[in-house]
Amino acid sequence: MVRHAGRKNSRSGVIVILAASVMLAACSAGGRGGKEEKESAVASEPGKYPIRAEETLTSWEPMDTNLSAFVTNLADSPFGKQLEKETGIKVKYTHPADGQSKDQFNLLIASNNLPDVIEYNWSGGNGSYPGGPEKAIADKVIIPLNPYIDKYAPNLKKLLEQDKELDKMIKTDSGNYYVFPMIRPENGLVFRGPMIRKDWLDELKLDVPVTIDDWYTVLKAFKERKGAASPFSALYQNEFNIQDAFIGAYKTANRYYIDDEGQVRYGPVDPQFKEALTLLRKWYAEGLIDKDFALNTDSKSLDTKMLNDSTGATVHLLSGGMGRWMDTGKKKNPNFQLVAAPYPTLTKGERPFIGQRDFKYNPAASKAVSDASKNPELAVRWLDYAYGEKGSLLFNFGTEGDSYTLNNGTPAFTDKIAKDGKYTLQQMISQYTKPNGPYLGDSRKNFNTFKQQDEALKIWSETDAAKHVMPQFITPTVEESKEIAKLNTAITSYKEEMFIKFVMGKEPLDKFDEYVKRIKEMGIDRVTKIYQDAFDRYNKR
Question: Where in the sequence is the signal peptide annotated (predicted)?
Fold first, then answer.
Protein backbone atom coordinates (compact mmCIF):
# COMPACT_ATOMS: atom_id res chain seq x y z
CA MET A 1 0.00 0.00 0.00
CA VAL A 2 1.41 3.37 -0.97
CA ARG A 3 1.33 5.94 1.79
CA HIS A 4 2.18 9.60 1.46
CA ALA A 5 5.49 10.12 3.22
CA GLY A 6 5.22 12.40 6.21
CA ARG A 7 1.42 12.44 6.29
CA LYS A 8 -0.28 12.46 9.66
CA ASN A 9 -3.56 11.01 10.76
CA SER A 10 -4.84 14.52 11.32
CA ARG A 11 -4.17 17.72 9.56
CA SER A 12 -2.64 20.38 11.75
CA GLY A 13 -1.51 23.94 11.51
CA VAL A 14 -3.25 26.97 10.27
CA ILE A 15 -4.60 27.01 6.75
CA VAL A 16 -4.54 30.54 5.51
CA ILE A 17 -7.44 31.44 3.29
CA LEU A 18 -7.85 34.82 1.70
CA ALA A 19 -11.30 35.82 0.56
CA ALA A 20 -12.58 39.28 -0.37
CA SER A 21 -9.29 40.66 0.97
CA VAL A 22 -10.05 39.18 4.44
CA MET A 23 -7.71 36.51 5.82
CA LEU A 24 -9.57 33.51 7.23
CA ALA A 25 -7.67 30.93 9.25
CA ALA A 26 -8.83 27.45 10.05
CA CYS A 27 -7.17 24.63 11.95
CA SER A 28 -8.15 21.54 10.05
CA ALA A 29 -8.56 18.22 11.83
CA GLY A 30 -8.04 14.74 10.57
CA GLY A 31 -9.24 13.27 7.32
CA ARG A 32 -8.17 9.68 7.92
CA GLY A 33 -9.09 9.54 11.58
CA GLY A 34 -6.52 6.85 12.25
CA LYS A 35 -8.23 4.26 10.06
CA GLU A 36 -6.25 1.87 7.93
CA GLU A 37 -6.37 2.49 4.19
CA LYS A 38 -8.59 0.07 2.31
CA GLU A 39 -6.98 -2.46 0.01
CA SER A 40 -10.08 -4.26 -1.24
CA ALA A 41 -11.36 -1.62 -3.63
CA VAL A 42 -8.02 -1.26 -5.39
CA ALA A 43 -6.81 -4.84 -5.37
CA SER A 44 -7.43 -5.37 -9.10
CA GLU A 45 -4.76 -4.46 -11.64
CA PRO A 46 -4.36 -0.68 -12.20
CA GLY A 47 -5.63 0.35 -15.61
CA LYS A 48 -8.33 -2.36 -15.64
CA TYR A 49 -11.98 -1.31 -15.38
CA PRO A 50 -14.61 -1.60 -14.03
CA ILE A 51 -13.25 -1.88 -10.50
CA ARG A 52 -16.55 -2.66 -8.72
CA ALA A 53 -15.55 -0.66 -5.68
CA GLU A 54 -17.76 -0.78 -2.61
CA GLU A 55 -16.64 2.62 -1.36
CA THR A 56 -18.21 5.86 -2.63
CA LEU A 57 -15.83 8.69 -3.50
CA THR A 58 -16.66 12.34 -2.98
CA SER A 59 -15.78 15.10 -5.45
CA TRP A 60 -16.12 18.88 -5.18
CA GLU A 61 -16.16 20.43 -8.64
CA PRO A 62 -17.88 23.16 -10.67
CA MET A 63 -20.71 21.97 -12.91
CA ASP A 64 -20.89 23.20 -16.49
CA THR A 65 -23.51 25.96 -16.70
CA ASN A 66 -25.05 24.35 -19.77
CA LEU A 67 -25.73 21.15 -17.84
CA SER A 68 -27.86 23.03 -15.30
CA ALA A 69 -30.65 23.15 -17.89
CA PHE A 70 -31.11 19.39 -17.37
CA VAL A 71 -29.90 18.29 -13.94
CA THR A 72 -28.67 19.77 -10.69
CA ASN A 73 -25.94 17.20 -10.11
CA LEU A 74 -23.37 15.59 -12.40
CA ALA A 75 -24.21 12.15 -11.02
CA ASP A 76 -27.68 12.41 -12.58
CA SER A 77 -26.42 13.24 -16.07
CA PRO A 78 -25.86 10.64 -18.80
CA PHE A 79 -22.12 11.34 -18.46
CA GLY A 80 -22.10 10.80 -14.71
CA LYS A 81 -24.03 7.55 -15.02
CA GLN A 82 -21.81 6.26 -17.83
CA LEU A 83 -18.62 7.15 -15.95
CA GLU A 84 -19.85 5.17 -12.95
CA LYS A 85 -20.74 2.22 -15.20
CA GLU A 86 -17.38 2.18 -16.99
CA THR A 87 -15.20 2.68 -13.90
CA GLY A 88 -17.31 0.74 -11.42
CA ILE A 89 -16.85 3.60 -8.93
CA LYS A 90 -19.74 5.52 -7.42
CA VAL A 91 -19.12 9.22 -6.80
CA LYS A 92 -21.05 11.78 -4.77
CA TYR A 93 -20.60 15.24 -6.29
CA THR A 94 -20.86 18.65 -4.66
CA HIS A 95 -21.06 21.69 -6.95
CA PRO A 96 -20.43 25.34 -6.04
CA ALA A 97 -22.98 27.83 -7.33
CA ASP A 98 -22.19 29.46 -10.68
CA GLY A 99 -19.90 32.45 -10.14
CA GLN A 100 -19.26 31.58 -6.48
CA SER A 101 -16.53 28.94 -6.81
CA LYS A 102 -13.84 30.99 -5.10
CA ASP A 103 -15.92 31.95 -2.05
CA GLN A 104 -17.35 28.46 -1.65
CA PHE A 105 -13.89 26.91 -2.11
CA ASN A 106 -12.60 29.06 0.74
CA LEU A 107 -15.48 27.92 2.93
CA LEU A 108 -14.80 24.30 1.95
CA ILE A 109 -11.14 24.48 2.94
CA ALA A 110 -12.02 26.12 6.26
CA SER A 111 -14.82 23.62 6.95
CA ASN A 112 -12.64 20.74 8.18
CA ASN A 113 -14.69 18.42 5.97
CA LEU A 114 -12.85 17.89 2.70
CA PRO A 115 -13.99 15.48 -0.04
CA ASP A 116 -11.71 12.92 -1.68
CA VAL A 117 -10.95 15.07 -4.73
CA ILE A 118 -11.26 18.78 -5.44
CA GLU A 119 -11.34 20.40 -8.87
CA TYR A 120 -9.83 23.87 -8.50
CA ASN A 121 -6.91 25.99 -9.55
CA TRP A 122 -4.07 24.99 -7.22
CA SER A 123 -1.37 26.77 -9.22
CA GLY A 124 -0.84 29.85 -7.08
CA GLY A 125 -1.88 32.24 -9.84
CA ASN A 126 -4.65 34.82 -9.57
CA GLY A 127 -7.85 33.24 -8.29
CA SER A 128 -6.15 30.03 -7.16
CA TYR A 129 -5.12 28.47 -3.86
CA PRO A 130 -3.15 31.16 -2.01
CA GLY A 131 0.51 30.22 -2.18
CA GLY A 132 0.10 27.49 -4.76
CA PRO A 133 0.57 23.71 -4.63
CA GLU A 134 3.58 23.59 -2.32
CA LYS A 135 1.60 25.62 0.22
CA ALA A 136 -1.47 23.39 -0.24
CA ILE A 137 0.68 20.32 0.40
CA ALA A 138 2.36 21.95 3.40
CA ASP A 139 -1.07 22.94 4.75
CA LYS A 140 -2.13 19.26 4.59
CA VAL A 141 -4.94 20.15 2.19
CA ILE A 142 -3.78 18.03 -0.77
CA ILE A 143 -1.24 15.24 -1.18
CA PRO A 144 1.77 14.81 -3.48
CA LEU A 145 0.81 12.27 -6.11
CA ASN A 146 4.18 10.82 -7.13
CA PRO A 147 3.88 7.34 -5.56
CA TYR A 148 0.20 7.10 -6.47
CA ILE A 149 0.73 7.99 -10.12
CA ASP A 150 3.65 5.58 -10.31
CA LYS A 151 1.63 2.64 -8.95
CA TYR A 152 -2.04 3.37 -9.67
CA ALA A 153 -2.21 5.69 -12.70
CA PRO A 154 -0.65 3.92 -15.70
CA ASN A 155 -2.50 6.06 -18.24
CA LEU A 156 -1.29 9.40 -16.91
CA LYS A 157 2.14 7.97 -16.17
CA LYS A 158 2.53 6.95 -19.81
CA LEU A 159 1.51 10.43 -21.02
CA LEU A 160 4.02 12.11 -18.72
CA GLU A 161 6.80 9.82 -19.93
CA GLN A 162 5.94 10.70 -23.53
CA ASP A 163 5.44 14.46 -23.03
CA LYS A 164 8.26 16.02 -21.03
CA GLU A 165 6.79 19.51 -21.41
CA LEU A 166 3.54 18.40 -19.78
CA ASP A 167 5.50 16.53 -17.12
CA LYS A 168 7.31 19.76 -16.28
CA MET A 169 4.04 21.71 -16.07
CA ILE A 170 2.18 19.64 -13.49
CA LYS A 171 4.80 19.36 -10.79
CA THR A 172 6.48 21.72 -8.39
CA ASP A 173 10.13 22.72 -8.43
CA SER A 174 10.75 20.09 -5.76
CA GLY A 175 9.31 17.46 -8.09
CA ASN A 176 5.90 16.91 -6.47
CA TYR A 177 3.06 16.07 -8.84
CA TYR A 178 -0.03 17.69 -7.37
CA VAL A 179 -2.95 17.32 -9.83
CA PHE A 180 -4.53 15.22 -12.49
CA PRO A 181 -4.46 17.81 -15.28
CA MET A 182 -6.85 19.03 -17.90
CA ILE A 183 -4.77 18.61 -21.07
CA ARG A 184 -5.77 20.74 -24.03
CA PRO A 185 -5.05 19.62 -27.58
CA GLU A 186 -2.97 21.95 -29.74
CA ASN A 187 -6.06 23.30 -31.50
CA GLY A 188 -7.70 24.06 -28.14
CA LEU A 189 -5.31 26.68 -26.78
CA VAL A 190 -7.18 29.72 -28.10
CA PHE A 191 -10.89 29.90 -27.37
CA ARG A 192 -11.78 33.41 -26.18
CA GLY A 193 -11.66 36.86 -27.68
CA PRO A 194 -13.48 40.01 -28.80
CA MET A 195 -16.72 39.47 -30.70
CA ILE A 196 -19.22 41.88 -32.17
CA ARG A 197 -22.67 42.00 -33.75
CA LYS A 198 -21.96 41.76 -37.49
CA ASP A 199 -25.62 42.37 -38.39
CA TRP A 200 -25.41 45.72 -36.62
CA LEU A 201 -22.16 46.59 -38.40
CA ASP A 202 -23.74 45.77 -41.76
CA GLU A 203 -26.82 47.83 -40.98
CA LEU A 204 -24.65 50.79 -39.97
CA LYS A 205 -22.24 50.24 -42.89
CA LEU A 206 -19.26 49.84 -40.57
CA ASP A 207 -16.31 47.45 -40.78
CA VAL A 208 -15.18 45.09 -38.03
CA PRO A 209 -13.04 47.29 -35.74
CA VAL A 210 -9.30 46.72 -35.71
CA THR A 211 -7.79 49.70 -33.91
CA ILE A 212 -8.77 51.48 -30.70
CA ASP A 213 -10.14 54.37 -32.78
CA ASP A 214 -12.21 51.93 -34.84
CA TRP A 215 -13.72 50.52 -31.66
CA TYR A 216 -14.63 53.99 -30.41
CA THR A 217 -16.43 54.74 -33.67
CA VAL A 218 -18.33 51.45 -33.60
CA LEU A 219 -19.35 51.55 -29.94
CA LYS A 220 -20.51 55.14 -30.29
CA ALA A 221 -22.65 54.14 -33.30
CA PHE A 222 -24.09 51.19 -31.37
CA LYS A 223 -25.19 53.55 -28.61
CA GLU A 224 -26.44 56.45 -30.68
CA ARG A 225 -27.86 54.69 -33.72
CA LYS A 226 -28.84 51.27 -32.35
CA GLY A 227 -29.93 52.39 -28.89
CA ALA A 228 -27.69 49.87 -27.11
CA ALA A 229 -27.79 50.56 -23.38
CA SER A 230 -24.40 48.88 -22.91
CA PRO A 231 -22.56 48.86 -26.26
CA PHE A 232 -19.72 46.83 -24.70
CA SER A 233 -20.04 44.50 -21.73
CA ALA A 234 -18.19 41.49 -20.33
CA LEU A 235 -18.13 39.20 -17.33
CA TYR A 236 -16.59 40.43 -14.11
CA GLN A 237 -15.09 37.52 -12.18
CA ASN A 238 -12.48 38.85 -9.77
CA GLU A 239 -11.57 41.26 -12.57
CA PHE A 240 -13.00 42.70 -15.79
CA ASN A 241 -12.67 39.57 -17.92
CA ILE A 242 -11.59 41.06 -21.24
CA GLN A 243 -8.34 39.08 -21.60
CA ASP A 244 -6.42 42.36 -21.90
CA ALA A 245 -8.37 43.49 -24.97
CA PHE A 246 -7.90 47.30 -25.26
CA ILE A 247 -5.36 47.23 -22.40
CA GLY A 248 -2.92 45.18 -24.49
CA ALA A 249 -2.93 47.90 -27.16
CA TYR A 250 -0.68 49.87 -24.79
CA LYS A 251 1.86 47.03 -24.48
CA THR A 252 0.83 46.05 -20.99
CA ALA A 253 -1.62 43.75 -19.24
CA ASN A 254 -4.05 43.76 -16.33
CA ARG A 255 -2.00 40.98 -14.69
CA TYR A 256 1.53 39.66 -14.39
CA TYR A 257 3.08 39.12 -17.81
CA ILE A 258 6.41 38.46 -19.49
CA ASP A 259 7.95 41.43 -21.28
CA ASP A 260 10.01 41.33 -24.47
CA GLU A 261 13.19 40.71 -22.46
CA GLY A 262 11.74 37.70 -20.66
CA GLN A 263 11.20 39.54 -17.40
CA VAL A 264 8.11 39.20 -15.21
CA ARG A 265 6.21 42.47 -14.86
CA TYR A 266 3.04 43.56 -13.06
CA GLY A 267 1.08 45.41 -15.71
CA PRO A 268 -1.16 47.50 -13.43
CA VAL A 269 1.83 49.56 -12.26
CA ASP A 270 3.28 50.15 -15.75
CA PRO A 271 3.25 53.81 -16.81
CA GLN A 272 1.32 52.86 -19.95
CA PHE A 273 -1.39 51.23 -17.84
CA LYS A 274 -2.55 54.73 -17.03
CA GLU A 275 -3.18 55.26 -20.75
CA ALA A 276 -5.34 52.15 -20.84
CA LEU A 277 -7.28 53.33 -17.80
CA THR A 278 -7.74 56.73 -19.42
CA LEU A 279 -9.29 55.07 -22.45
CA LEU A 280 -11.64 52.88 -20.41
CA ARG A 281 -12.59 55.85 -18.23
CA LYS A 282 -13.52 57.90 -21.31
CA TRP A 283 -15.60 55.10 -22.77
CA TYR A 284 -17.35 54.48 -19.47
CA ALA A 285 -18.14 58.17 -19.04
CA GLU A 286 -19.68 58.25 -22.51
CA GLY A 287 -21.83 55.20 -21.81
CA LEU A 288 -19.95 52.90 -24.19
CA ILE A 289 -19.05 50.40 -21.45
CA ASP A 290 -21.75 48.71 -19.38
CA LYS A 291 -22.34 50.97 -16.37
CA ASP A 292 -22.94 47.84 -14.27
CA PHE A 293 -19.95 45.85 -15.59
CA ALA A 294 -18.72 45.02 -12.07
CA LEU A 295 -22.03 43.29 -11.32
CA ASN A 296 -21.81 40.84 -14.25
CA THR A 297 -20.51 38.05 -12.04
CA ASP A 298 -22.35 35.17 -13.70
CA SER A 299 -23.01 34.22 -17.30
CA LYS A 300 -26.78 34.76 -17.09
CA SER A 301 -26.49 38.53 -16.79
CA LEU A 302 -24.29 38.73 -19.87
CA ASP A 303 -26.54 36.28 -21.74
CA THR A 304 -29.50 38.58 -21.19
CA LYS A 305 -27.69 41.67 -22.41
CA MET A 306 -26.30 39.97 -25.51
CA LEU A 307 -29.64 38.46 -26.49
CA ASN A 308 -31.93 41.42 -25.77
CA ASP A 309 -29.90 43.86 -27.89
CA SER A 310 -28.60 45.81 -24.89
CA THR A 311 -25.01 44.87 -25.76
CA GLY A 312 -23.39 44.61 -29.16
CA ALA A 313 -19.83 43.56 -28.29
CA THR A 314 -17.99 41.59 -25.65
CA VAL A 315 -14.99 39.37 -24.97
CA HIS A 316 -16.10 35.81 -24.34
CA LEU A 317 -15.83 32.13 -25.19
CA LEU A 318 -15.93 30.61 -28.65
CA SER A 319 -18.50 27.90 -27.87
CA GLY A 320 -20.02 28.95 -24.57
CA GLY A 321 -20.44 32.47 -25.89
CA MET A 322 -20.41 32.97 -29.64
CA GLY A 323 -21.84 29.58 -30.58
CA ARG A 324 -24.46 29.54 -27.85
CA TRP A 325 -25.62 33.09 -28.52
CA MET A 326 -25.77 32.49 -32.28
CA ASP A 327 -27.92 29.39 -31.72
CA THR A 328 -30.33 31.24 -29.45
CA GLY A 329 -30.23 34.63 -31.12
CA LYS A 330 -31.06 33.33 -34.58
CA LYS A 331 -34.27 31.74 -33.30
CA LYS A 332 -35.52 35.18 -32.32
CA ASN A 333 -33.85 37.16 -35.11
CA PRO A 334 -32.64 35.29 -38.23
CA ASN A 335 -30.20 38.13 -38.95
CA PHE A 336 -28.47 37.82 -35.55
CA GLN A 337 -24.76 37.32 -36.24
CA LEU A 338 -21.61 37.51 -34.18
CA VAL A 339 -18.10 37.62 -35.64
CA ALA A 340 -14.66 37.79 -34.11
CA ALA A 341 -12.75 41.04 -34.00
CA PRO A 342 -8.95 41.12 -33.67
CA TYR A 343 -7.46 42.10 -30.35
CA PRO A 344 -7.29 45.86 -30.92
CA THR A 345 -4.08 47.80 -31.47
CA LEU A 346 -3.28 51.50 -31.61
CA THR A 347 -2.08 51.31 -35.20
CA LYS A 348 -3.59 49.34 -38.05
CA GLY A 349 -1.33 46.47 -39.14
CA GLU A 350 0.34 46.18 -35.76
CA ARG A 351 0.42 42.71 -34.20
CA PRO A 352 -1.47 42.56 -30.89
CA PHE A 353 0.86 42.45 -27.91
CA ILE A 354 -1.20 40.00 -25.87
CA GLY A 355 -4.51 38.18 -25.84
CA GLN A 356 -5.96 34.89 -24.71
CA ARG A 357 -3.74 31.89 -25.29
CA ASP A 358 -3.53 29.12 -22.76
CA PHE A 359 -1.10 26.28 -22.28
CA LYS A 360 -1.81 22.59 -22.81
CA TYR A 361 -2.09 22.23 -19.05
CA ASN A 362 -5.16 24.02 -17.69
CA PRO A 363 -4.72 24.47 -13.92
CA ALA A 364 -8.24 25.83 -13.39
CA ALA A 365 -9.95 22.56 -14.38
CA SER A 366 -7.60 20.05 -12.78
CA LYS A 367 -8.21 17.81 -9.77
CA ALA A 368 -6.14 17.25 -6.66
CA VAL A 369 -6.58 14.44 -4.13
CA SER A 370 -7.26 15.84 -0.68
CA ASP A 371 -5.35 14.93 2.44
CA ALA A 372 -8.71 13.89 3.92
CA SER A 373 -9.23 11.06 1.44
CA LYS A 374 -9.53 7.73 3.22
CA ASN A 375 -8.74 5.89 0.00
CA PRO A 376 -6.47 7.97 -2.24
CA GLU A 377 -5.60 4.89 -4.31
CA LEU A 378 -9.22 4.53 -5.39
CA ALA A 379 -9.44 8.26 -6.12
CA VAL A 380 -6.31 8.07 -8.27
CA ARG A 381 -7.61 5.07 -10.21
CA TRP A 382 -10.91 6.85 -10.80
CA LEU A 383 -9.10 9.96 -12.08
CA ASP A 384 -6.70 7.95 -14.26
CA TYR A 385 -9.56 6.49 -16.30
CA ALA A 386 -9.90 9.79 -18.20
CA TYR A 387 -6.42 9.42 -19.73
CA GLY A 388 -6.92 6.02 -21.31
CA GLU A 389 -8.45 5.43 -24.75
CA LYS A 390 -11.95 4.54 -23.57
CA GLY A 391 -12.01 7.19 -20.87
CA SER A 392 -10.82 9.89 -23.23
CA LEU A 393 -13.62 9.04 -25.67
CA LEU A 394 -16.18 9.27 -22.87
CA PHE A 395 -14.91 12.60 -21.57
CA ASN A 396 -14.63 14.11 -25.06
CA PHE A 397 -17.54 12.56 -26.96
CA GLY A 398 -19.77 10.66 -24.53
CA THR A 399 -21.27 7.24 -25.19
CA GLU A 400 -20.74 5.51 -28.53
CA GLY A 401 -23.99 4.90 -30.39
CA ASP A 402 -25.81 7.49 -28.32
CA SER A 403 -23.95 10.82 -28.38
CA TYR A 404 -21.35 9.89 -31.02
CA THR A 405 -20.51 7.37 -33.71
CA LEU A 406 -17.19 6.26 -35.15
CA ASN A 407 -16.70 6.76 -38.89
CA ASN A 408 -13.47 5.08 -40.02
CA GLY A 409 -12.16 5.60 -36.50
CA THR A 410 -13.15 9.27 -36.32
CA PRO A 411 -15.74 10.25 -33.69
CA ALA A 412 -18.66 12.43 -34.79
CA PHE A 413 -21.57 13.69 -32.70
CA THR A 414 -24.92 12.14 -33.57
CA ASP A 415 -27.88 14.13 -34.83
CA LYS A 416 -29.39 13.67 -31.40
CA ILE A 417 -26.64 15.94 -30.09
CA ALA A 418 -25.93 18.19 -33.06
CA LYS A 419 -29.45 18.83 -34.33
CA ASP A 420 -31.71 19.01 -31.32
CA GLY A 421 -34.55 21.41 -31.97
CA LYS A 422 -34.78 22.79 -28.45
CA TYR A 423 -31.28 22.85 -26.99
CA THR A 424 -27.98 24.17 -28.34
CA LEU A 425 -25.06 21.93 -29.25
CA GLN A 426 -23.19 23.10 -26.16
CA GLN A 427 -26.14 22.22 -23.92
CA MET A 428 -26.57 18.79 -25.46
CA ILE A 429 -22.84 18.00 -25.30
CA SER A 430 -22.72 19.02 -21.63
CA GLN A 431 -25.04 16.12 -20.74
CA TYR A 432 -22.85 13.41 -22.25
CA THR A 433 -19.29 14.71 -21.82
CA LYS A 434 -17.29 16.87 -19.44
CA PRO A 435 -16.55 20.11 -21.32
CA ASN A 436 -13.87 21.07 -18.77
CA GLY A 437 -12.04 18.86 -16.35
CA PRO A 438 -9.05 16.58 -15.82
CA TYR A 439 -8.76 14.45 -18.95
CA LEU A 440 -6.89 14.19 -22.24
CA GLY A 441 -8.44 16.58 -24.74
CA ASP A 442 -9.06 15.25 -28.25
CA SER A 443 -8.18 17.44 -31.23
CA ARG A 444 -10.99 15.78 -33.21
CA LYS A 445 -13.60 17.34 -30.91
CA ASN A 446 -15.18 20.39 -32.48
CA PHE A 447 -18.01 22.34 -30.88
CA ASN A 448 -18.21 24.82 -33.73
CA THR A 449 -21.56 24.99 -35.46
CA PHE A 450 -20.95 28.19 -37.45
CA LYS A 451 -18.24 29.17 -39.88
CA GLN A 452 -17.82 32.37 -37.87
CA GLN A 453 -16.42 30.26 -35.02
CA ASP A 454 -13.80 28.66 -37.27
CA GLU A 455 -12.80 32.12 -38.46
CA ALA A 456 -12.66 33.40 -34.89
CA LEU A 457 -9.98 30.87 -33.95
CA LYS A 458 -7.71 32.17 -36.69
CA ILE A 459 -8.33 35.82 -35.84
CA TRP A 460 -7.80 35.46 -32.09
CA SER A 461 -4.65 33.40 -32.64
CA GLU A 462 -2.94 36.31 -34.38
CA THR A 463 -1.32 37.80 -31.28
CA ASP A 464 2.00 37.64 -29.44
CA ALA A 465 0.31 36.09 -26.40
CA ALA A 466 2.58 33.03 -26.56
CA LYS A 467 5.53 35.33 -25.75
CA HIS A 468 3.86 37.39 -23.06
CA VAL A 469 1.38 35.28 -21.08
CA MET A 470 3.00 34.23 -17.82
CA PRO A 471 2.49 30.52 -17.07
CA GLN A 472 0.14 30.03 -14.15
CA PHE A 473 1.84 26.79 -13.14
CA ILE A 474 5.21 28.14 -12.01
CA THR A 475 5.61 27.14 -8.38
CA PRO A 476 7.18 29.29 -5.67
CA THR A 477 8.76 27.56 -2.68
CA VAL A 478 6.76 27.17 0.54
CA GLU A 479 8.51 30.17 2.09
CA GLU A 480 8.00 32.24 -1.05
CA SER A 481 4.40 31.12 -1.14
CA LYS A 482 3.87 32.39 2.37
CA GLU A 483 5.09 35.80 1.24
CA ILE A 484 2.84 35.74 -1.80
CA ALA A 485 -0.15 34.72 0.32
CA LYS A 486 0.57 37.63 2.62
CA LEU A 487 1.26 40.22 -0.07
CA ASN A 488 -0.36 39.32 -3.36
CA THR A 489 -4.00 38.99 -2.35
CA ALA A 490 -3.97 42.38 -0.66
CA ILE A 491 -2.25 43.91 -3.68
CA THR A 492 -4.72 42.37 -6.11
CA SER A 493 -7.68 43.45 -3.99
CA TYR A 494 -6.43 47.03 -3.80
CA LYS A 495 -5.59 47.08 -7.50
CA GLU A 496 -9.05 45.86 -8.43
CA GLU A 497 -10.74 48.32 -6.10
CA MET A 498 -8.82 51.17 -7.72
CA PHE A 499 -9.34 49.79 -11.24
CA ILE A 500 -13.10 50.02 -10.77
CA LYS A 501 -12.87 53.47 -9.20
CA PHE A 502 -10.61 54.79 -11.97
CA VAL A 503 -12.83 53.42 -14.74
CA MET A 504 -16.04 54.63 -13.11
CA GLY A 505 -14.56 58.04 -12.32
CA LYS A 506 -14.84 57.64 -8.55
CA GLU A 507 -11.12 58.37 -8.31
CA PRO A 508 -9.35 60.84 -10.63
CA LEU A 509 -6.58 59.45 -12.79
CA ASP A 510 -4.36 62.14 -11.31
CA LYS A 511 -4.03 59.72 -8.40
CA PHE A 512 -2.45 57.02 -10.57
CA ASP A 513 1.09 57.76 -9.35
CA GLU A 514 -0.15 57.67 -5.76
CA TYR A 515 -1.83 54.33 -6.49
CA VAL A 516 1.41 52.92 -7.97
CA LYS A 517 3.37 54.13 -4.95
CA ARG A 518 0.90 52.39 -2.64
CA ILE A 519 1.20 49.09 -4.52
CA LYS A 520 4.99 49.33 -4.37
CA GLU A 521 4.77 49.95 -0.62
CA MET A 522 2.58 46.85 -0.38
CA GLY A 523 5.45 44.77 -1.78
CA ILE A 524 4.83 44.35 -5.50
CA ASP A 525 8.55 44.36 -6.29
CA ARG A 526 9.07 41.45 -3.92
CA VAL A 527 6.19 39.47 -5.44
CA THR A 528 7.49 40.12 -8.95
CA LYS A 529 10.94 38.94 -7.86
CA ILE A 530 9.47 35.74 -6.45
CA TYR A 531 7.60 35.06 -9.68
CA GLN A 532 10.74 35.82 -11.71
CA ASP A 533 12.77 33.36 -9.66
CA ALA A 534 10.03 30.74 -9.99
CA PHE A 535 9.80 31.38 -13.74
CA ASP A 536 13.56 30.97 -14.08
CA ARG A 537 13.47 27.73 -12.09
CA TYR A 538 10.60 26.44 -14.21
CA ASN A 539 12.58 27.10 -17.38
CA LYS A 540 15.43 25.05 -15.94
CA ARG A 541 13.35 22.00 -14.93
Answer: 1-25
